Task: structure prediction
Amino acid sequence: MFENWRRKKDSAVCKEEKIPDVNRITCWEKTAGDFYAPGALLQVKNGKGLLYDCYSEEPSPATYCTLMFGDFPLFQLQGDEYFCPTCEKIIRSSYGLEQTEEFREERMNGENMPFLEALEGLRPLLGLLEDNCYVVLDTQLFPTDGNGHVFWNVPESREGVPGSCLFYRGDGQWGDNRPHFTVATQSIGKLCQSRVEYYRRHPGCRAVAYYMDGYMTALLDGHHKAMAAALDHRCLNALVIMPCHSVTRQEGNDSGGICRREYLMTGDMWFSCEKYGVRSGRNMEWKKLPPEKMRAIQTRFSRQEPPFPYDNDKLAAAYPGASEASDIDLYTDEYGEITQELLNQILTQEHMCTICQIQALLRALAGLRHKRLFEMADFFLRKCTYLSLLAFHDRETFAIIAEQLMKLPRTEELVLYMVNLMVEYEDEYPSVGERIKEWL
Result:
């Protein structure tokens, strides 16, 4: 009789167990001026709450944002004032993530799988999240931290690093909060060379990352995919999970008055709660841990890692840093994608560039390590018929072009070219000539 009662009770518990519900609210394609990558806005209900980010303030000025999997920390940003969007943060990663059933790669994506199919495969992992709204972006990441380290070889920083916050472009202009870089949450000790080689042969597979702040993400799944991308000097295809926060704005209404409207915000994207019929109880200080728990978490970041088996400097040099990623965004947001057709049209002068576009283009080409950087720089310096940097006394544009050329690998041909350039322009722009001398 007791056994029958227990079976009935266990059955009732199973019926009451809540199954995670992932509802797609809206999705979009990449569009000029609106979205820089395809994506979807989702709402998670009855989530398991195992994968989440939380905040804590120590008695000292330090503030922490930590990505957790259950009670285990995966990644952390630390800043003197974490919620300052322009303050660089210290970054640290806690390796040792053991993948659960929901992290199985073959369930989440295949090579060149359509975004909506990949999103369906991601549902088990999304069910690990807490109840909230999220954006999932179908984008590309650089397999580095944006600070000279391959994603699987990032040391614990001692001071704030570029890429962990908004990037200041100068003249009162700031970059955007967008995922560009990623850092491992799994030990290099789990590296399997055969898996890396498999993904070198299948570059269309996606990884999965969680957006933290600035340009930074924590890599949840796809470490071998990311290593394959780094070895081939290409970007990593990735689905990036971005948690939304609730923000209230005061805006003008049709009658000329002021009203308060609620939005969901993540990165640099905003969604009207009224338009999409969603709400979020989460704000920027939604979940805080007591200092004593955070101190216990800190001890779990200590680790002894095997040596990184590749040439970090050579691999990382193929990718932009934080400032260069901002330069790429600046050009593509304003002028669109850089295509071979566009560059050919510029060279034939079918497409005429403004001074601002020239400056942005050369910076973006340098950031992309584009093979046609020298060709485009030489065109604007010597062959363009509608622009003369000497006649227009445009020292700024000349200096920008020269700076990008000096980022190219040093060869005898490049050295000779820069010497001739310095001689040609030194009377008009002596300060730039001095900079070239230093480079020589």
Summary: The chain has 16 helices and 16 strands. The chain has a mean pLDDT of 82. The longest strand covers residues 132-141.
